[in-house]
Amino acid sequence: MRATDLSDEVKACLKHYPPPHSAHRGVVPARPSRGHIGVGGSKVGLRAAEAERTLARLTQEFHHSESAFALTRILERQEAVSSSSIEGTQSTLDALLEFEEDGDASDETIETRGVSIALDYGLGLVRKHGRNAFTVDLVLGLHARLAGAIKGFRGDPGTIREEVVWIGGQGKDPSTSTWNTPPPADVAECLEDTLCYMREEPEDQSQFSIIVRSAVAHAHFEAVHPFLDGNGRIGRLLVPMMFAANGMLPVYLSPWIEAYKSEYFEALKAAQQRLDHSPMIDLLARAIIGTEVEFRTTIAAVEEIESDWNTTLKLRKNSTAQRTLAILKSYPVLRAWTLADLLGVTFKAASDGLAQLERLGVVEERTGFSRNRIFASPAMLNVLTRPFGTDPDLHDHGDSPKL
């Protein structure tokens, strides 16, 4: 890390590392400012205000929407997949959904599942306790669930690091890093500074915006880097958790961030090295606005598929097969046992319903086995797993029987 890249205010926070890295210094981040936060001009300010309105609109329209609620499971898992991909852990939504059915997966998919488990845990706490949920115990719990799924994780999941870590660069020391995190002895206090900021009421009018506060909190958490691994994924989970803690829809931004990854890392550097939060504020605002477009596109496509099925398939009303159609947007990959539990029917009824939908081309059996079979809906998966920002492929809904 070059001192010339740091603002004078950040340089004042430099502190020598313990041996064997005592020739290098880390930054002990100052507490997040409670005062005025500049947004970098009217353009960013207007975009942040638009994003604020977008969050409010999404919350009002979809907080109790059946369509949005049904997609929650998928959106949470897509957050896990995209956030993991940003860190270089490659899996897919399809692979994750299949793993949840058969328990068999690659190490990368198992690791990605840990992010989903952590998110579910964290959202449960913030919905119960609001901003007061943002404690060290919460963050340790997130990390325990995430890192516990990382094969060969070095250290104890759910514990604050006791080693020097740095971001970027090559080699065994921080001489070529882009950011030197605080020395181990300072991490706990710095993390508490982040969480205290997330709990408190804003003091300055510029920080009434949840967009601004999320940008500041996220950048500060990433600067602290409290764990040996998993910091980025936990930091990105904290953003929708902040939305939820403030009574808003927990909009998941990692799919958008994955598409604009280089801008995201540059925005983090600006906030950490120069305390310039405007790029991160702008980036989160754009992410929220772009995610709304994607969300509405997905809902419209899913509803079109369901409408087409209900119009053309002529299934008996309230039959297992007919009721299954509404399940497939949440469970586009599933076993008969899963369907039986969801619908409250017998295993045989679920199996018969899936067999009927297979004949109609709505689902396909993947394993080729006679037992423990897994079914998938190609039409739903085409929509739900498409690359961010691309149009859904709404062909081949399975509207003609396969003879």
What does this structure look like?
The chain is 56% helix and 4% strand. The C terminus is likely disordered. With 403 residues, it is mainly alpha-helical. The chain has 16 helices and 7 strands. The protein folds into 2 domains: 292 residues, Orthogonal Bundle (Fic-like fold), CATH 1.10.3290; 91 residues, Arc Repressor Mutant, subunit A (Orthogonal Bundle), CATH 1.10.10.10. The strands form 3 sheets. Strands 5-7-6 form a 3-stranded antiparallel sheet, sandwiched between helices. The protein has a two-stranded antiparallel ribbon with strand order 1-2. Strands 3-4 form a two-stranded antiparallel ribbon. This is Fic family protein.
